[in-house]
Write a structure and sequence with these properties.
The complex is a heterodimer of chains A (279) and B (256). With 279 residues, chain A is mostly helical. Chain A has eleven helices and no strands. Chain A is 79% helix and 0% strand. Chain A starts with a helix and ends in a 7-residue tail after the last helix. In chain B, the strands form two sheets. A six-stranded mixed sheet of chain B has the order 5-6-7-3-8-9, with helices on both faces. Chain B has a three-stranded antiparallel sheet with strand order 2-1-4, covered by helices on one side. Chain B has two domains: 179 residues, P-loop containing nucleotide triphosphate hydrolases (Rossmann fold), CATH 3.40.50; 69 residues, no CATH class. By secondary structure, chain B is α/β, with parallel strands linked by helices. Classes of the chains: A mainly alpha (279), B alpha/beta (256). Chains A and B meet through helix 8 and helix 9 of A and helix 3 of B.
């Protein structure tokens, strides 16, 4: 395929054992057991910290619930931040999908286009995004847009690499069949390459979705002002030593990551699961 | 050895595929084909037998237009050419019916007409009831039937087969051979069939051409005198055995 190693790293990471809801049914008691053990360990640690007067660093789980979630002030701060982050994630991800798919389609048209454009996808992947954040702030300010830019940049590479891989995975025989039937480039793309690439595109999308959560929170932690999301809330709670609220925000961010990962896994199965096995 | 020149018996007007001195040299210098002379006429089913890598698939790719011969004259005298590849090359996201309609769809046949024709050819290849199945739900033989139906829908005058049944088990292969013969008798297309099985070649064909190893060239041609439609039990007659023996002998001689 001539894609080099970045793609392999990417697909190895994203083609791991798929996370399935069914883990929680039937034999799900094993996972629940681990959760119970973790919560038990959490209580143990919380009591150690609270004896040393550092209870705000590791609060008791029940405190996280009562103060962090089940409290109208904390809850409204949390939902507000969550909503801001969700908007950044979905807009950033949507832009990454559009740019990534178009970029890959252009590269799939000719070997020279791939040679000219693929190195920049790799460069994009290699830039430590945090190094760029101050520059992005200087150019785009501290509002919604710079957050979206960071999210898009971090989510773009898996879309580009996986879409390109998918477009190029079309079997030679199928391509020849289309050629013999007089299909042009556009027909070939629409009826052969894009459908064939869909499974790869969804693999990329799942990876990108996970990354976009990271992008949104990292961007947020730097920008703070404008439309503060979960990252900003985590920073604020942390600096004010609001232990339970901080833990509630972290747990919400984690849950958001899991939900988005599951959502795109489900979307992929709905879209192509009929004819393709994700495993 | 019986070598027959058919051009004297068949009038030139019905020759649909004509290789005359066809040669193929690949850019890396490999000579795949040298001085190939072969004709396929209406009503003829011609098999080319030879071992793997002798250039017989290249011959078929030249006929289809996927490759261009480096020299010689290759003439295809019809617009209606059907192809069946080694793999069924079905699109996994399309149902059997939608796969069968693919070529027609790409060539712009009106929807109603191609739906009507697709139902007809699906019935012809014995896939009725499987129209809405996806390729992953089909056996290897059913995939090949779908592939044949896809080309059959276009009413080909010249049908090119590139070792289509090579990957199938013998029972399925023999059944598909019989069905291909039935289609040949009913639709009277001209067939060019690439295979490495001597008995398959003799059973299916009106003419068998033996190809030598690289560079590939036709070293012998045999007329198959058995009448169509063929009785499957013809395979067990002494005449059939004698002819397959002759073809095998020619193959061995060509390949040392």
């Amino acid at each position: 395929m001539g894609l080099g190693s970045p793609l392999q790293i990417q697909s190895a990471a994203s083609r791991g054992r798929p996370f399935k809801l069914s883990y929680f049914r039937g034999s799900g008691w094993k996972a629940i057991l681990v959760l119970a053990l973790l919560i038990g360990f959490w209580y143990l640690e919380a009591s150690r910290y609270s004896h040393r007067g550092l209870g705000f660093i590791v609060p008791y789980p029940n405190q996280v619930w009562t103060i962090g979630f089940d409290n109208s002030q904390s809850f409204s701060a949390l939902t507000h931040a969550l909503w801001n982050s969700v908007q950044v994630i979905f807009v950033g991800l949507a832009i990454a999908i559009v740019i990534g798919v178009i970029w890959a389609i252009v590269m799939a048209q000719a070997k020279w286009a791939e040679q000219a454009l693929f190195p920049y996808a790799v460069v994009l992947q290699c830039i430590p995004i945090l190094a760029l954040v101050p520059l992005i702030a200087a150019i785009a300010g501290y509002g919604f847009e710079p957050r979206v830019i960071v999210t898009t940049m971090i989510a773009l590479f898996p879309m580009v690499a996986n879409t390109l891989f998918g477009l190029q995975s079309v079997e030679r025989g199928q391509r020849e069949l289309f050629k013999l039937s007089g299909a042009g480039r556009l027909t070939m793309l629409r009826k052969l390459q894009l459908p064939a690439a869909l499974p790869s595109i969804f693999v990329g999308l799942r990876t990108s979705a996970g990354l976009s959560v990271i992008g949104a929170i990292v961007g947020d932690q730097f920008f703070q002002r404008g439309t503060p999301g979960l990252g900003a809330l985590i920073e604020v709670d942390n600096s004010r030593l609001l232990g339970p609220q901080l833990w509630a925000a972290i747990l919400t961010a984690a849950a958001l990551g899991v939900v988005i990962f599951l959502l795109f896994g489900l979307l992929g199965r709905l879209a192509v699961g009929r004819w393709h096995d994700f495993s | 050895m019986t070598t027959t020149d058919l051009s004297s018996e068949v009038s030139r007007a019905t020759v649909l595929l004509d290789f005359a001195g066809t040669e193929m040299t690949f850019p890396n210098g490999t000579v795949a084909l040298r001085d190939v002379d072969l004709t396929v006429s209406r009503g003829e089913f011609v098999s080319v037998v030879g071992p793997s890598g002798c250039g017989k698939s290249t011959l078929l790719r030249i006929a289809s237009g996927l490759e261009h011969a480096s020299s010689g004259r290759t003439v295809v005298r019809t617009e209606h050419v059907g192809y069946v590849f080694q793999d069924a090359t079905l699109l996994p996201w399309r149902t059997v019916a939608k796969n069968v309609e693919l070529i027609a769809e790409l060539k712009g046949m009106p929807t109603a007409l191609r739906a009507e024709k697709s139902a007809k050819v699906i019935d012809l290849v014995g896939l009725s009831g499987f129209e809405d199945n996806l390729p992953r739900q089909l056996s290897g033989g059913m995939k090949m039937r779908t592939s044949v139906a896809r080309s059959l829908l276009m009413d080909p005058e010249l049908f090119l087969f590139d070792e289509p049944f090579g990957a199938l088990d013998e029972i399925t292969r023999e059944r598909l051979n019989d069905e291909l013969l039935r289609l040949f008798v009913e639709h009277s297309f001209a067939g060019l069939f690439i295979t490495h099985s001597v008995s398959e070649a003799v059973y299916l064909s009106t003419k068998v051409a033996v190809m030598s190893g690289r560079p590939g060239t036709i070293v012998a041609q045999f007329d198959v005198p058995f009448p169509m439609p063929r009785d499957p039990d013809i395979r067990f007659t002494p005449e059939f055995g004698e002819l397959t023996g002759k073809v095998s002998h020619a193959l061995r001689k060509a390949h040392g």
